[in-house]
């Protein structure tokens, strides 16, 4: 198992501590230290001497993150003199680190070379630190950081939706889906930090539930979706709820934070920004439905062994979380 290795447990602990340190820091120096600790802890988790693709992904990830860190260090001396001017390269560096458009080119290729458990960390924990550090840059009161985040959010929504249409590799589809969700997160942090926290928490639950299904059946390609046990009702419900929840369809869990972002953008008058997010969210549903049809309709001639009862427990819990609005409809109207 991936997490039973003592060295990996150590690196995973320092990785989480680095992300939390950067997200909760009160100075740029502490934030940079947390980002570096997070980076240096993730490299050993994805590097492997027996797999050339994971080693290539580790090298790509290190070079991109080192570029972002170099931009932060180069801009740091000028913060006291020209604060608003030097915030621009820092914001660009944070966008590079999280894989937001137009700096997204490294993200799908790195995702393709790693395993599902490592991809889950890359899509969740590795985005947390740059996102929350970015909120400090937006608190300066200048319009330039806000404009950069807005443009990056619009570009990320377009790239994340259109980029996943012609993909047949599931890790790249999840990568472009993550870029599209990142557009919603950037929109959330632009006007309310607490909404970003709740959107990110729901996003982690939804992505973990989808990744668990793919990891349980070791599915990496679009044509392998038929390997899912089509005779098991639990897996069917899990696949159905997780994909539609990731697409943000009501009344699944993923719909709630998107509804709050829509409400926030509408109240602030950002109708054009909101239009891009909504239109591209509809486009992402196309490849979610394609995956769902492949998993629900087609069946293998020799189906793979079904999961054990022990393996069903996490799937049952994550599926139940995605169905929370159905189980408790009043939770949709509860304030976050």
Automatic annotation (TrEMBL):
Q: Which domain of life is it from?
A: Eukaryota
* Domain (NADH:quinone oxidoreductase/Mrp antiporter transmembrane): residue spans on this chain: 25-283
Q: What is its EC number?
A: 7.1.1.2
Mind telling me which InterPro entries this protein's record contains?
A: Complex_I_Subunit_2, NADH_UbQ_OxRdtase_chain2, ND/Mrp_TM
Show the GO cellular component annotation of the record.
mitochondrial inner membrane
A biological process (GO) of this protein is: mitochondrial electron transport, NADH to ubiquinone
Assigned keywords, A-Z: Electron transport, Membrane, Mitochondrion, Mitochondrion inner membrane, NAD, Respiratory chain, Translocase, Transmembrane, Transmembrane helix, Transport, Ubiquinone
Q: What class of enzyme is it?
A: translocase
Which topology term describes how it sits in the membrane? Multi-pass membrane protein
**Statement: the UniProt record of this protein carries the keyword Translocase:** yes
Q: Which reaction does it catalyse?
A: a ubiquinone + NADH + 5 H(+)(in) = a ubiquinol + NAD(+) + 4 H(+)(out)
Do the record's keywords include Translocase? yes
Picking any one GO molecular function of the record gives: NADH dehydrogenase (ubiquinone) activity
Cell location: Mitochondrion inner membrane
Q: What transmembrane ranges does the database entry give?
A: 32-54, 61-81, 87-107, 198-222, 234-253, 273-301, 313-334
Q: What does this protein do?
A: Core subunit of the mitochondrial membrane respiratory chain NADH dehydrogenase (Complex I) which catalyzes electron transfer from NADH through the respiratory chain, using ubiquinone as an electron acceptor. Essential for the catalytic activity and assembly of complex I. Core subunit of the mitochondrial membrane respiratory chain NADH dehydrogenase (Complex I) that is believed to belong to the minimal assembly required for catalysis. Complex I functions in the transfer of electrons from NADH to the respiratory chain. The immediate electron acceptor for the enzyme is believed to be ubiquinone.
Q: Which family does it belong to?
A: Belongs to the complex I subunit 2 family.
What is the protein name given in its UniProt record?
NADH-ubiquinone oxidoreductase chain 2
